[in-house]
Here is the input.
Amino acid sequence: MNDARPTPGTEMIFQWRKWDGSTHWRHECVYLGADEWGDWIGQPTGWPSERPSAAFIAATPNVTLVPRQTDFALTVNRDHPQGMRIYIDIGWDVRWSDDPLLAVGIDMDLDVVRVEGERGTWVDDRDEWAEHSAQFGYPADVMSRLEALALDLEQRVRAQVAPFDDATPDLWLDRLDALHLAPRLDS
Here is the structure.
């Protein structure tokens, strides 16, 4: 693994795959910097994300933490139209690749979501988790570890402890906003 990081403000990619190696979400991002929690990358409003058979353009700015812990990625939105503040992808081998402009991870289906309002915080996509664990043959020890992690992260999000609070990611959202990056018109 390469420990080199891009200069803050440098464009980069976050590429997810599934357990079988198939392509999943690809997010166009910009590197923002690092803190005690790990590396932060941002996706400005109007920048694309795509996977086979789906694509979207970021409606609002968001930042993603690539933590030192390699089994999740935390994404925090600012002013999301559906009130989605936090979306944590439970993953496997979430890390920087040998290319300093590419962060990678294996999406393991389970997600922890926090929305503003009555619905609050929950573990999402348990149906996809069950389906893919059978389809891809997730090892039992991996499943146990990630199921426990999802429940732990759900509690930490509910308690709003850093970096799952508002202040920590808002600092990075402010840094992203300060870059004044334009929407992608060619996407």
About this structure: Helices lie at 126-136, 140-159, 167-178. The two ends are 31 Å apart (CA to CA).
